[in-house]
Design brief:
The chain has two helices and ten strands, in the order H-H-E-E-E-E-E-E-E-E-E-E. It is an alpha+beta fold. The chain has two domains: about 45 residues, no CATH class; about 130 residues, Sandwich (Jelly Rolls), CATH 2.60.120.
Length: about 190
């Protein structure tokens, strides 16, 4: 008898928290069987968007991509970016290029690329001869010696560690568009 009582005492909180399984007499919409009185409602996730939540859809990115294409035509390096959001630990860019990129090196940031369209070859690692500091913690060069070549196309995602040289080459492709997450603080 004591074991049965102990079992019920332990199981009672679990039974009260268990989801409704459609048993007769239990109708969550009517407020019976789930501990919520009729007329009361449970908070729903859709009622409030958490601070810092952002969603970019293909429909919201498409006009930005077109705008970046127009800017890239007149840019010295045939590339354009648009900052989409800046947060404590990371920031987001949409990037579009119509020619090979410069070799880059970031001391304190990790790059994550999500390829949206086009194809390119990413050279990652190796040395950047004649690298110039273009801003604090950032270097650029015309090319990379050595390194590994990775072919990228739509849907690919890559992570480039901080302090790792990298360069995008279009290899005959007309354009390349990619979503960039810059993770700060490395």
């Amino acid at each position: 008898m004591k074991k049965r009582l102990l079992f019920y005492l332990l199981a009672l909180p679990l039974m009260a928290a268990a989801p409704d399984t459609g048993r007769t007499g239990s109708n969550p919409a009517a407020g019976t069987g789930n501990g919520v009185s009729a007329g009361a409602s449970l908070p729903r996730a859709a009622d409030a968007t958490p601070a810092g939540f952002v969603r970019w859809t293909p429909a919201t990115l498409a006009p930005m991509t077109q705008s970046l294409g127009a800017k890239a035509v007149t840019d010295l390096h045939h590339a354009a970016t648009q900052r989409l959001g800046d947060f404590t630990n990371e920031y987001f860019l949409l990037a579009h290029r119509e020619a090979d990129g410069q070799a880059e090196w970031h001391e304190n940031e990790v790059d994550v690329f999500v390829v949206q369209s086009g194809s390119a070859t990413l050279i990652v690692g190796g040395d950047m001869p004649d690298a110039e500091t273009v801003s604090p913690h950032e270097k650029r060069s015309a090319s990379i010696q050595g390194g590994t070549r990775q072919k990228l196309s739509a849907g690919d995602i890559v992570r480039i560690p901080a302090r790792t040289s990298h360069q995008l080459l279009l290899d005959g492709s007309h354009d390349f568009t990619y979503f960039v997450v810059k993770v700060k603080g490395y």
